[in-house]
Structure formats: structure tokens, C-alpha cells
Hints:
The chain is α+β, with helices and mostly antiparallel strands. The protein has helices spanning 9-13, 30-42, 198-216, 227-230, and strands at 18-19, 28-29, 56-61, 66-72, 75-79, 82-84, 90-92, 114-120, 124-130, 136-140, 151-153, 164-165, 168-170, 182-184, 189-190.
Amino acid sequence: MRRASWMSSMTALYPEKFVFDVFGLPKILARDLAKNLEEQAFQFKPDIHLGELATNLRYVETDHAKLIEVTTASGTYLSRALIITSGNGIITPRKLPNERADEFEGKGIIYAVQRDELHGHERLEAVTVRDWRQNLHKLEIDALLPMIGFKINLGPLAKWGLELEDKHIKVDARIRTNLAGVFAAGDVATFDDKIKLIATGFAEAAMAVKSALEYMHPEQKVKMAFSSVSGVPAAKI
Ligand SMILES: Cc1cc2nc3c(=O)[nH]c(=O)nc-3n(C[C@H](O)[C@H](O)[C@H](O)COP(=O)(O)OP(=O)(O)OC[C@H]3O[C@@H](n4cnc5c(N)ncnc54)[C@H](O)[C@@H]3O)c2cc1C
């Protein structure tokens, strides 16, 4: 298992805001909720690879099964089923809508200030920024408000042959996409009257796991179980 930084919408976009509508939690900071979710997942010691962009998907036929191969910069991963939970996808700055904007990018038009270094002890006291001539300047500051606009981009998933609707992946009532063995849950998944909430993402993830198990074991009836009653069995897939 390799651990790296994990930036969900909660940790990237609103870490210091309270969330009031996750059932059973009267109110919780988004970053604490993300930390709790991470702790909950890691207690079962899953094999996790973070900080890798999934770029390609293809099917690989073996003697026994049709497998799904996902490629990242670090290698390839084979699986019998795949659940996509890519949320808002890749986040990039909104570009100035001017025909010469590209020409001057990095030569006067800068979409994000490059802060090469943060300085401080108890709190942030100064930043070092790089100007367009690549000169470094150390600036003393009282506060840093990084209000950097972004736009949503599905990223490489857009080329995987998935049926899309308005930059989201269409799923049916069993959270299946149009590709065999590929499911989608959370913000990236769409269906009629979809509500983009943390709570609905949780429910869709559970449904996606059930559908994935049914896909992998068509000969068996997948039985629903309560973790409070039957505990958590070691993964058998
Ligand atoms: C400002 C704001 C406030 C909100 N407040 C609330 C609230 O109070 N209550 C509530 O219920 N909901 C709230 N939401 C909605 C909630 O944050 C989302 O519904 C939820 O975070 C979606 O979770 P997710 O796992 O589907 O996606 P995300 O949390 O966006 O996670 C997707 C992950 O996939 C990664 N990823 C994307 N593409 C790839 C790729 N190709 N390869 C590898 N990784 C990839 C991303 O980097 C990210 O880590 C809010 C949303 C915003 C923007």
C-alpha cells in the first residue's frame, strides 16, 4: 500500500467549512469528515494507490475472464470490475476568453501566482513569489487569500467510451455505466433527478459495490449483509 496526498472536493474546495447534512454527524468540518473517511477505509488495510491520474482504460481478454486494465503514470492495474468515483474530475484555472491570451500566458498573464515558499512559525508571515521574469520576491504578509478560480473537466475519462451527459457519466438504476463491468458513483455519476450530496454518494457507492459483485459472480446470488450483525469479512474477491 502506498499513501500519498488525497484531495477530494471536501479537502480541496471547502476544508474549513462545516457540513451539517451528513446523517449522524450534527456538524463536522469538511476536512475532519475527509480524515474520518480515510481512517474508516484504512482500518481494513486495503491496497490503495493515491496521487495517480487514471489515464486509460481497456479490456484485456484472458483464458478465464475479461479484465479491465486501468493505466496511470505509475503502471497498470487489472480488475474484473471498476467503480469510478472521480467527482468533479480535473480542476484547472479558467482562461481569459481572448484570442491572444495563450500567446501571453506566462509572459504577463498568470492564472495562478507561483508561491515558491511559505514562511512562518506560529502562523504564516511571508511568501516568496516568482514573477513572470522568474525573479523571486519575498513578501511579508498578514494573510494569504488564495482565491483561484477553477473549471471542471472530466479529464482522461472523457475518452474511455463512457456514455456522458453534460460532463457526467450516465448510470442506470443499478449504477451501471454503458461499459461492461464499469460502474460510477458520487458526483461524477448522473441519472434523472440526481442530487449531488455526500450522503447520496455514500448510497451510490454501496449500490455500485453490490452491482460489481453481481457482475463478477453472475452464478451466485449476492446477499446483502449488515456490518453490525455479520462483521466485516476479509475480501474474497
Ligand atoms: C463548495 C462546496 C460545498 C459543498 N458542501 C456540501 C455539504 O455541505 N453537504 C454535502 O452533502 N455536499 C456538499 N458538497 C458536495 C460534496 O462535496 C460532493 O457531493 C462530494 O464531495 C462528492 O464526492 P466524490 O467522492 O464523488 O468526489 P470528490 O470528492 O470530488 O473526489 C473525486 C476524486 O477523484 C479524483 N480524480 C478525478 N479524476 C481522476 C482520475 N482521472 N484519476 C485519478 N483520480 C481522479 C479527484 O482528484 C478527487 O480526489 C459541496 C460541494 C462544494 C463544491
